[in-house]
Amino acid sequence: MNIFLAALIISMASYLAIGWYAGRKVKNLDDYYVAGRNAPTLLIVGTLVASFMSTNAFLGEMGMSYQGHGPLIVIMTGVNCLGYIFGALFFGRYLRRSRVLTVPEFFGQRFQSRRLQSLAGLTIVIGLTCYLMAVTWGVSLIVSKVTEMPAWASIVLVWIGYTGFTLYSGSRGVILTDTVMFLLFSSVALVALYYIIQSGGGWYVSIEQLAVFQDKPGIISWHGVIGEDSNWKTSTDALIWALILGIAWGIVVAVSPWQTSRYLMAKNEHVVIRSACGASIAMFLLYLINSYAAAAVNLSNPNIDPPEGVMIWVAMNLMPAILGAMLVCGILAAGLSSASTFLSLIGFSASNDIFQRAKNPETQLKSTRYTIIIIGLVVVTLCLILPSNIFWITYFAGPVFASSWGVVAFMSIWSSRITEAGAFWGMLTGFLGNIAANLLGVFTDVKLPVYLDPILLGSACSFIAVFTVSAVGTVSVESKLFRERLHRLPEKDKNRTEIARTLLWPKAMIVIGLVVMALMINFYAKPYHYALQKNSESQSELRP
Amino acid sequence: MSGEMLLAISYGSVMILGGSFIWWHIKNYYDD
What we know:
The complex is a heterodimer of chains A (544) and B (32).
Chain A: H1 3-23, H2 29-34, H3 41-52, H4 55-97, H5 103-110, H6 114-147, H7 151-167, H8 170-199, H9 203-211, H10 235-255, H11 257-260, H12 269-296, H13 310-317, H14 321-354, H15 361-385, H16 393-397, H17 400-414, H18 420-443, H19 454-471, H20 477-486, H21 496-542
Helix pairs in contact in A: 1-7, 1-8, 1-14, 3-8, 3-12, 3-14, 4-10, 4-12, 4-14, 5-6, 6-7, 6-14, 6-15, 6-17, 6-18, 7-14, 7-15, 8-12, 8-14, 9-21, 10-17, 12-21, 13-14, 14-15, 17-18, 17-19, 18-19
Chain B: H1 3-29
C-alpha cells in the first residue's frame, strides 16, 4: 500500500470517527439541521472557509496562479473577502434571528409563501447537486492519481467517505469535520509554501527569479501574465476581470446557502459577526499564500501538465513523503468538506423545503436521512455514468445563487416594498438568467464581455423582476410584521462583555491588514523592483 | 508608485477598511 493511500484511509477513518462522535449527540431536528444552534466562533469559521474552498481552490485556482495569473486571484480575493462582512452584517444575522431550519424556509416565512420556499429549495437541489458532482469528480481524480485506483473505485470511495460522516451526524458532524479539515488544509498549505520556496532557492532568490521569469513574463507583476497568448490582452482587462469576479463571488459568500446556512448554527449574533471576520481573515491569508506558492513552483518545474495538478506535483516531488501525503489529504479535505456541506444542504432542502415537513420530528429526522441516501445514490450514479469532462455544468452551479438569491435576500431584510410575487419572480428570473447566460457561453461562440458576467447579468434580471412585479402588488400584513421582528435586536446580544469580545475581531483585522501590507511591500514589491532594476542594468552592460 | 506597491497597499487596506467598518458598526449598533 502506498503512503498516499494509507494517509487517505487514516484521514477518512478519522472523519468517520468524528461524525460518529457528533452523531451520538443528535437528539432532535435542531441538532441535525443547525447543530443545536450552539456553535462557537471557531466551528463557524471552520465550516465557512472549508465549505467555500473546495478542490477548485487547490486545483483550478492554483493551476491558474501557476500559469501566471496569481496576482489576479489575489485582487479577486481582496474584494471577495468583503462579501463575508456585508453578508453577515446585512443578511446573516437577520437570518439567524428568524430561527428557521434552512435558508429556503426563511424565504418561505418572510413572505408567507410555500411556493417561494419550494423554489429556493429547488435551486439548492439543482445547483448544489451539480456542484457536488463536480467536487466528487475533483476529489476522486486526485485519489485515483495518487493511489492508482481505477476511476470508478475512487468515485465510490469518495462518495462513501463524505456520505458516511454526513448521514449519521448531520450538521453537528459536518461543522466539526469541516473545522478539522480547515485546520488541516490551512496548515499544510503553509508547510507546502516553505518547501516550494526552499526548492526555489529561498524567498528573495525566488522573487528575483520570478520577476524576470522568461517562460511566463510578468508572472508576479501586479497584473500577472498578459498579452496575445493570455486570456487578458491588457492589464486593464485583467484588472476589470478580477474586480468584477471579486464582486460576484463576494455576493456568493454573502448570500449562498452553503455559506449563510452556517450562521443559523451560531451560538449568538456576536458569533455570526466574529466568524465572518475570522473567515474573511482566513481567506485573505490563504489565497495570498496559495497564489504566490503556486507561482513559485515554476522555478522547480515550469512544465506541469495539466497545470491544475501543480499541488499534487508538489506533494509527490518537492516534499518529504509523509508531508506530501498530508498535503494530498489537505487538498482532499478541502473537497470533502464542501461535499459534506452540499450533501447535507441538498438533503435538508429536499425533505424540508420541497416536500412538506413531517409533523413528527422523529419521522422528519428519519426522512431527511433517507433523502440524503437517495440523493447520494443519484449523485454517485451520475458521476459514474456521465463523462467527468463535462465541467461546464460547474460554471453555473456555485454562482447561480448570487444571481438567484442575492437581490431577494438583501431586499427581504432592507425593503419594505418587496412583495411575495416580486421575491418569487425575482428568484426565478435570476436563476434562469444566470443559466441562460452560462449556456450561451458554453454552446455558442458568443463571448460576453466581463461586465456581463452571468452572475451580474442574472442579478440584474432578478432586480428588474423584483422591482417591476413588486410595483404592481401589495405587501401582506404578515410579511410586514415578520420583517419588523427581524429588525428587533435581541436583548441578550446587548451584553457588554460579548460586545467587547466581538470588537477584538475587527481590531485583529486592522492589525493583520497593516502587517500584510508591510510584509508585501518589503518582501514582494521592493525586491521585485530591485530584481527588475538589476536585470535592466545587466542587460544594458551586455549591450555594445 | 508601481503597480506592485499599489497592490501591496490596497490588499492590506481591504482588511483595514473592513475591520474599521465592522468596529464602527458594532459600536453604533450594539453599544448605544
